[in-house]
Design goal:
The complex is a heterotrimer.
Chain A: H1 2-24, H2 27-43, H3 52-73, H4 89-123, H5 137-167
Chain B: H1 3-19, H2 24-39, H3 47-56, H4 63-76, H5 79-91, H6 97-110, H7 116-133, H8 138-149, H9 159-168, H10 172-200, H11 217-242, H12 248-265, H13 271-304, H14 307-315, H15 322-336, H16 342-359, H17 364-378, H18 386-394, H19 401-424, H20 426-437
Chain C: E1 4-10, H1 17-32, E2 37-42, H2 53-59, E3 64-66, H3 78-83, H4 92-100, H5 104-113, E4 117-119, E5 123-125, E6 130-132, E7 146-148, H6 151-159, E8 163-165, H7 172-178, E9 183-185, H8 189-194, E10 203-204, E11 213-215, E12 217-220, H9 221-225, H10 229-263, E13 267-268, H11 274-292, H12 296-307
Parallel strand pairs in C: 1-2, 1-3, 7-8, 7-9, 10-13
Antiparallel strand pairs in C: 3-12, 4-12, 5-11, 6-9, 6-10
Classes of the chains: A mainly alpha, B mainly alpha, C alpha/beta.
The complex binds sodium ion (2 copies).
């Protein structure tokens, strides 16, 4: 019963994080298009836009922040694995629990402080300082979402590690990892 | 708490978290917040919004996603590999020739980008796989990418050079000119190292193991054609910068459009490839930006606590001969590279150190070039260096941090010898700007 | 130990002339308070990005801040009017009356107060000028030019027929050199000198885009409330001394910067005709109503301006 609940929790977290992480990658071609369009508008039409600069920065920010949890799921975040690869599987799990706690603490700070910033941005109608002046509140909300996803992913990873440390069995059986290419 | 003690505690925390294998960016951010909370209180958390906002809204950093995306599209459509296959058809009989071609491509990328991250991750996207596929020694391949990608800030345009010139009121043009001789010397020494090292250890660079060994005549023509076009694309991107069509950051997007068009033109465009390139880029961008965000948070906290005053304190009354002072200043920069990034080193050290150097009778431009060379070394010196992290991000799964640490040694020595040459022979740096700009 | 530990962030880098003036303010506060307030000076890039200073002082991370308000147009719209709208006066005497007698000070105290900040004395700095690659012989020449001019200045140059371009500061030099842009404004003449832009664009236009610029110095409200009356008076007095220092020195530095740039080949575009001057002022004044409609404090400030 407990095992099933844990499994369901981890599976749904992994699912949501993967969905958002993959969705946000579709912003990448749009980002390149927006920047290229600005070059075109300025150089060939002699009519630079007022929006491309801020819009491209927002897009890049969304890709970078929201992709963080998915990168954790794929174990793509960079670590210094010198001692790490030399220790036993169970020591690795203990190491993971420690470093995940630090990361979760960091993300809790991000959520708390960005919530304040979000409320302030709504109250005073904060905008970018450019002529286009798009609103800022969604950026802080996005960071709250990004940090929450990160916490969900770390909590799911921690559960798997803890489960294995306690029971000696894997919570979720995994096939060999494949990359986006399928190779 | 004294800043010296705090710095010691922060360093210790970095080493512990690195040993545990924690994600670098998240660990740095977490350490800054935890140590900050215990010394300052919850007020320190307010450092997060301004740091995240300034990092994510930095237009210069936008070069990272755009150039990586161009690199990924070139690689995954096969056009990038064609460039190296073609070079192998032509000069494949020379041992190590692929690594030499990679140095050439890295130099061209260095002439497009102005920041380290974009240089290394773009060069890595395009050039790492072809070398590993042909059985090149892992360390040689990684080291070449690291050294070549680092040229991004030594070959103009260079953001740290512009920042140095502005904070010390020197000529950007002279700075760019002064960097050319050291850049050419670096490239020459890299090539010389590859040739000698492959001669001594032939197994580091196997011959005749690439696809070109079994190609039909028709395939060879096609490879040469694709290779030529991908080189032309790189020249077109460079041209868009030089002609004033786009800024160095924006030209990354031109490269993306060009890569997509080339893929269509050669009927290599597949939606799956396009999707995978976007996915991989998004992942790499996220990984790089979370490192930058965490590291900036860390250095911002350290700066708010007054590390700059500690550095200023070191440099008072050194009581050394002039060259001794220069050496100590550089050691400080190398040590700072242990904990802070390229831009902050310039912003902090340029205004602190340059007046001292000028007082001693040296040319500030010369010192600026030494600073850039020091930064280049600092960011690729273990254990903490952005270049190391970027390279790990772009490397295939089997590559460990230890591989990367080991791979850099000879290349750091090369850069160190360029640095020493420039230090001992200021004429080598100042000759070109003096000749061209009077 | 000090009774109050403050951090003061300003927008200039360490070692620059203006940075030093702010450094002197920090020292003055320490000295005049007999060490009861200790002020740690943070220069540009040291812990807080220059664009983040306003937010950092609001939150209390930084106690005291000095910024260039066009960077914060989206958070404090009145700051745009405060710094000086295109077409505003450059007369220091008039500005002083405007701020201290006509009511700018009250409106700005309210505007900053509404966001948890205490607004101190205004600092008058030299005006904004435009540097171009080709000489501007008449205002007609602005048509079709691509100029790096953010925010209010962008709207101003658009009124002249030019196209404002968004470019980050570190790309201005290369942008001018390669021709991505035909010209750029700097936050003042000294800024143009520091950026070495004269190497790649030689012509300075004679008319400033706005009159003298007014830069605020502000303090976090909670930190301010902790000060006893006498220390509040001391901080205010130190700020006033500093405002004068800033004004006299900036004149001197501006002329030094001009001499510097002229020695590197800077040239002035020809003196504009009266008709050109009229077009120029009109391009600025048409923005006033637009800004007045966007924010209640801006509206109050512009009403005061119009009454003059
Ligand atoms: Na470069
Ligand atoms: Na390092």
């Amino acid at each position: 019963m407990i095992t099933a609940t844990l499994k369901a929790y981890c599976a749904s977290v992994n699912h949501v994080v993967a969905f958002i992480g993959q969705s946000v990658s579709y912003v990448m071609p749009m980002l390149a298009f927006v920047v290229a369009f600005e070059v075109f508008a300025r150089y060939f039409l002699n009519k630079p836009t007022v929006w491309a600069y801020d819009l491209s920065l927002f897009m890049a920010g969304y890709i970078a922040a929201l992709g963080g949890a998915y990168a954790q799921q794929k174990k793509a975040h960079i670590n210094v694995d010198i001692l790490y690869i030399a220790v036993s599987a169970n020591s690795k799990r203990v190491f993971n629990l420690l470093s995940s706690s630090l990361a979760i603490f960091f993300m809790v700070v991000v959520i708390l402080i960005c919530t304040e910033k979000f409320n302030e941005a709504v109250e005073f109608n904060y905008r970018r300082f450019s002529e286009w002046s798009p609103p800022m509140h969604h950026f802080w909300m996005m960071l709250i979402v990004a940090a929450s996803l990160m916490i969900l992913q770390f909590s799911s990873d921690m559960l798997e590690d803890l489960y294995h440390l306690i029971t000696g069995r894997n919570l979720i059986e995994r096939a060999e990892e494949t990359d986006a290419d399928g190779n | 708490m004294e800043i010296e003690v705090l710095t010691g505690i922060l360093l210790l925390c970095i080493l512990v978290s690195f040993a545990l294998g924690a994600p670098v960016g998240l660990a740095l951010g977490g350490i800054a917040m935890a140590v900050g909370y215990s010394t300052w209180g919850e007020g320190i958390f307010n450092i997060v919004p301004s740091t995240f906002e300034s990092t994510l809204f930095s237009f210069v950093l936008l070069a990272i996603p755009l150039y990586i995306y161009m690199g990924q599209l070139l690689t995954r459509s096969g056009i990038g590999d064609a460039m190296f296959n073609a070079s192998q058809l032509i000069i494949g009989r020379v041992r190590g020739s692929l690594a030499i071609s990679v140095v050439g491509v890295c130099s061209m990328i260095g002439a497009m980008v102005g920041i380290i991250g974009a240089g290394i991750m773009t060069s890595g996207s395009i050039a790492l796989k072809p070398m590993l596929q042909r059985g090149y020694d892992k360390r040689l391949a990684l080291g070449v990418i690291m050294a070549g990608g680092g040229l991004g800030i030594l070959i103009p345009p260079s953001v740290p050079m512009i920042m140095f010139a502005a904070t010390t009121q020197n000529s950007v043009g002279r700075m760019f000119m002064a960097a050319l001789v050291p850049a050419v010397v670096t490239i020459f020494m890299l090539v010389a190292y590859i040739v000698v090292s492959c001669k001594l250890n032939p197994e580091r660079a196997p011959l005749g193991t690439g696809q070109e060994a079994t190609m039909t005549q028709k395939e060879k023509m096609r490879t040469l054609r694709d290779g030529l076009f991908s080189v032309l694309l790189i020249f077109a991107v460079l041209g868009s910068i030089i002609s004033g069509m786009a800024t160095p950051t924006e030209s990354g997007a031109i490269g993306v459009v060009g890569a997509v068009l080339l893929a269509f033109f050669f009927k290599r465009f597949r939606f799956g490839m396009f999707r995978a390139a976007g996915m991989e880029t998004a992942m790499l961008v996220s990984v790089a930006m979370w490192i930058i965000m965490g590291a900036t948070l860390f250095s911002n906290f350290h700066l708010l606590m007054g590390v700059q005053d500690m550095v200023a304190g070191f440099t008072e009354d050194l009581g050394l001969p002039p060259l001794g002072v220069i050496i100590v200043l550089q050691l400080i920069m190398l040590l700072l590279g242990f904990i802070i990034d390229e831009f902050i080193i310039v912003l902090m050290c340029a205004p602190l150190f340059t007046p001292i150097v000028v007082e001693l009778g040296y040319d500030p431009i010369w010192f600026g070039i030494l600073m850039i060379l020091n930064i280049e070394i600092a960011v690729q010196t273990p254990p903490y260096g952005f270049a190391l992290f970027y390279l790990k991000g772009i490397a295939p799964p089997g590559v460990t941090m230890l591989d990367i640490y080991k791979s850099v040694t000879p290349f750091v020595l090369i850069k160190l010898s360029v640095l020493i040459l420039c230090m001992l022979f200021p004429e080598a740096v100042m000759w070109l700007p003096n000749k061209v700009m009077g | 130990a000090a009774e109050h530990n403050w951090r003061f962030a300003n927008l200039y880098t360490r070692g620059t002339a203006f940075g030093e003036v702010y450094g002197n303010l920090a020292k003055n506060i320490e000295e005049m308070s007999g060490g009861r307030i200790k002020v740690k000076m943070m220069y540009a890039g040291e812990g807080v990005d220059t664009r983040g200073i306003l937010g950092a002082v609001k939150s209390g991370l930084i106690t005291m801040g000095a910024t260039f308000q066009p960077m914060n147009a989206g958070e404090m719209p009145a700051g745009i009017v405060e710094v000086g709208l295109p077409g505003g006066t450059a007369d220091v005497g008039k500005l002083s009356v405007l701020f201290h007698e006509k009511g700018f000070d009250k409106v700005l105290s309210d505007a900053y107060g509404s966001q948890g900040l205490v607004w101190l004395d205004p600092y008058i700095q030299p005006p904004v000028y435009l540097l171009t690659k080709k000489p501007i012989n008449s205002v007609e020449d602005f048509k079709g030019l691509k100029l790096r001019a953010p925010g209010a200045y962008g709207k101003f140059v658009r009124n002249l027929g030019a196209s404002p371009v968004s470019l980050t500061w570190s790309e201005i030099y290369t942008g001018l050199a390669t021709g991505v842009i035909d010209g750029s404004i700097g936050s003042n003449l000294i800024d143009h000198r520091d950026g070495n832009h004269v190497e790649v664009a030689k012509y300075m236009y004679r008319l400033p885009l706005a009159g003298a610029q007014v830069l605020p110095v502000f303090v976090n409200q909670k930190a301010w409330n902790k000060l006893p009356k006498d220390l509040k008076a001391i901080v205010k007095a130190a700020t006033a001394v500093h405002a004068r220092e800033q004004m006299t020195k900036s004149r001197l530095w501006e002329s030094e910067a001009i001499a510097d740039m002229e020695s590197k080949g800077m040239k002035w575009s020809p003196v504009p005709s009266d008709a050109d001057k009229a077009v120029w002022s009109k391009a600025g004044e048409s923005l006033w109503d637009e800004y007045a409609s966007q924010d209640k404090y801006s509206k109050q400030l512009i009403e005061i301006l119009k009454k003059q």
